[in-house]
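Troubleshooting entry. The earlier prediction with copper (II) ion gave an output that would not parse, so I re-checked the input for stray whitespace and re-submitted. Clean input:
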Amino acid sequence: MVRMIGLTIGIAFLVLPALVFAKEYVVGAEAGRDSEVDYYAWADGKTFYVGDVLVFNYSQDEHNVIVVNATGYDKCLASSNSGAFYSGNDKITSTTPGNKYYICQWHCDYSDQKLMITVLRP
Ligand SMILES: *[C@@H]1O[C@H](CO)[C@@H](O)[C@H](O)[C@H]1NC(C)=O
Ligand SMILES: [Cu+2]
């Protein structure tokens, strides 16, 4: 029983910091909804951690958010098994560390509407 409690507290200490300090980032917030956002500039200087949430706000009929790999990011290619979001208010939680790549299928090539972030362990 004591062991169980100890284990529970141990887990709480591992999980809590991620929850307590998880931040929500509205992508391109400073520039406003649907405007031409410089995503490189937006991400520059921000540090993202596992548990953080990216919020993508946009007009549903104009944009989307496709999760791609590095190749898809460079070449603006969405593979059929990519995660895809279309709601116009997508919240994507980073659950693992590493580089994350998101593109808008329609404007990735056209106006560089793509975002790359590096997610660190908390
Ligand atoms: C990365 O994405 C590209 C383009 O969609 C795809 O062809 C390739 O198989 C993917 N690579 C990996 C390792 O998943
Ligand atoms: Cu778009």
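This one parsed fine. The first strand starts at residue 24 and ends at 26.
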